[in-house]
Amino acid sequence: MRRPQQSAARTEARQPHEYREPKPHAGGAQPPDFPRDLVPRHVALVMDGNGRWAKERGLARTDGHTAGEASLFDVVEGAAQIGVEYVSAYAFSTENWKRSPEEVRFLMGFNIETIHRRIDEMDELGVRIRWCGRRPRLWKSVIRELEIAEERTKHNTRLTLAMCINYGGRAEIVDAAAALAEDVRAGKVDPKNVDEQLFASYLDEPDMPDVDLFIRSSGEQRTSNFLLWQSAYAEMVFDDVLWPDFDRTHMWKAVESYVSRDRRYGGALPNIVTADPASPADTNAR
Ligand code: FPP
């Protein structure tokens, strides 16, 4: 099939005021007025429930995936409206190769087509597209489309959309460990210097901040191997809505829940600040 031409690659960065405004919600919903500093920097999405949505309508599973595309890009528009900086979308896991060959083939082609179709509007919005995932086994044509998108949008600063394709949290950690071990063997890294910060620099996207808000649609309550390292202290929101019925208003509702929560990172509330922060007293509330 002959595909529509995309705009030529930009040769220089634009100023943020040159990005287009996010598209309004189809139903006219307006974003809640979140205090800017409470908005999650990084929202992770497990786009689950496409198959069940299709089954309920007597459609093929793949029709559910097709319908789910609009949900993802509506969430991105809504994320841009409230100032989210990173959205990570779990679009194909390292375990999804276990699905039927027909569905795998569909999903490979679907990811290529989706990225190709959406690149102009994402670029105009100021979205930087990144790919997280393993290279081996992934179709070369998918990698090519992802690399074109990465190159084309590399200067954009409004929001980063991480397309996680052939991605698995354990795979990412194992690959990082292997690369680090290589560097230790080559004498580039002293094992004494290995700490969390150094280890994280070996992950797929070292500059990606930790996940603040982890959303999964369709009522399932598990992470399914998504962004395991980055989600260590993520706030989890499980929404019963099936992914094709999910839109930015569901994401905003999740953000409302997120802003109302206490994130303690292993500390305790209320946090009694001692005179010498280097030697906290036993009086800290537990
Ligand atoms: C994890 O559940 C969910 C995913 C890896 C998402 C799959 C997404 C799609 C198939 C297509 C969506 C793509 C777009 C662009 C809308 P799982 O089913 O792999 O894990 P589980 O077996 O633990 O439920």
Describe the structure.
The chain is of the alpha/beta class and 286 residues long. Helices cover 35% and strands 13% of the residues. It is built from seven helices and six strands. It has a six-stranded parallel sheet with strand order 3-4-2-1-5-6, sandwiched between helices. Helix 1 packs across helix 2 and helix 2 (61-82) crosses helix 7 (248-259). Residues 46-48, 50, 65, 68-69, 72, 90-91, 93, 95-96, 107, 114, 220, 222, 224 line the site of farnesyl diphosphate.
Please render the helix and strand layout as text:
Blueprint: E1 42-46, H1 50-56, H2 61-82, E2 86-93, H3 101-125, E3 127-132, H4 140-152, E4 159-167, H5 169-185, H6 196-200, E5 213-216, E6 235-238, H7 248-259
Parallel strand pairs: 1-2, 1-5, 2-4, 3-4, 5-6
Helix pairs in contact: 1-2, 2-3, 2-7, 3-4
The chain binds farnesyl diphosphate (FPP).
Entry keywords:
alpha/beta; single chain; binds farnesyl diphosphate; disordered C terminus; six-stranded parallel sheet; 286 residues
Global mean pLDDT = 93
Number of helices: 7
**Structural class given helices, strands, pairing?**
alpha/beta
Strand-residue proportion: 5-15%
Percentage of residues assigned to helices: 25-40%
Largest sheet: 6 strands, parallel
First-last Cα distance? 63 Å
**Hetero compounds:** farnesyl diphosphate
Counted beta strands: 6
Residue runs with pLDDT of under 50 for 5 or more positions: 279-286
Q: What is the overall shape? A: globular
Radius of gyration: 20 Å
Give the topology string: H per helix, E per strand: EHHEHEHEHHEEH
Region (Disordered): 1-37
Subunit structure: Homodimer.
Keywords: Magnesium, Metal-binding, Transferase
Binding site for Mg(2+): 48, 235
